[in-house]
């Protein structure tokens, strides 16, 4: 059951991957005015194949966000999320939802317009915008001076990343935010980053210059939901403070106001590392360095254990976000 308030706080959530839908689903039941800004730099799996085939934005993260904010019956959701088997030749690994987004992107000649149509079709409570209306290519420059192109390749060599940046995949124009994204950020009461892969889910959005600048200039509370686990080839040996330092370095500003940090330990031998092979160890805490970055730190048990994996408990995180948004703006 939704919780209704006289004033629905405007909350913009930015990111991608599997963590974003967890937070969005929780927010939907708190009657927030939600805007999801979703990365378009994914070049792996079904999304990668489709963006190469028909020159569209990668649909996978957008698909998962649509489902998270939709009130369609569970059976419809299962159909939309169905993934074809590996032995199905041409359709192998594609989801029905990805194919629907691809068809509408071709029909409307725009993934952005396709998503706006689907938000109505799927009774989405909120706004969903791709970060850019053109697919982006993520580049990583490593500390040894080498560079790699493509989100799916960044973690392969497990080198230490110096910085990342994005380019338009199919032209030489400067990447820019999609319609209404900058306005949503400017009008927000709260901006939430993550949870999600630091370099491949969060920063690809912030590296769109006008989008990143809008966050820096925003008067909204900017909240970073720190990852629970370090990630192979991205944040190996990182503390929570090092995650924030990377964000601040990329935008050349100390723009994160509050960091949500999980302090509940993961039971020994719990993680199924064969399934979740990108995760390494639990993120260590460095609260003093977080304060040196001018961040308020909220540390609590945000942990959910299921299916041999480690996740944020969406309800606990959203409860904290609402305490923050009403405490800072109302």
TrEMBL record:
Q: Which species is this record about?
A: Candidatus Vagococcus giribetii
Functionally, this protein is described as follows: Required for morphogenesis under gluconeogenic growth conditions.
Q: Where in the cell is it found?
A: Cytoplasm
Q: Which of UniProt's keywords are assigned here? A: Cytoplasm
Family matches, as Gene3D superfamilies: CofD-like domains (3.40.50.10680)
Return the similarity comment: Belongs to the gluconeogenesis factor family.
Q: Does Transmembrane helix count among this protein's keywords?
A: no
Question: What is this protein called in UniProt?
Answer: Putative gluconeogenesis factor
Q: Does the keyword Nucleotide-binding apply?
A: no
Q: Report the PANTHER family cross-referenced here.
A: GLUCONEOGENESIS FACTOR-RELATED (PTHR30135:SF3), UNCHARACTERIZED PROTEIN YVCK-RELATED (PTHR30135)
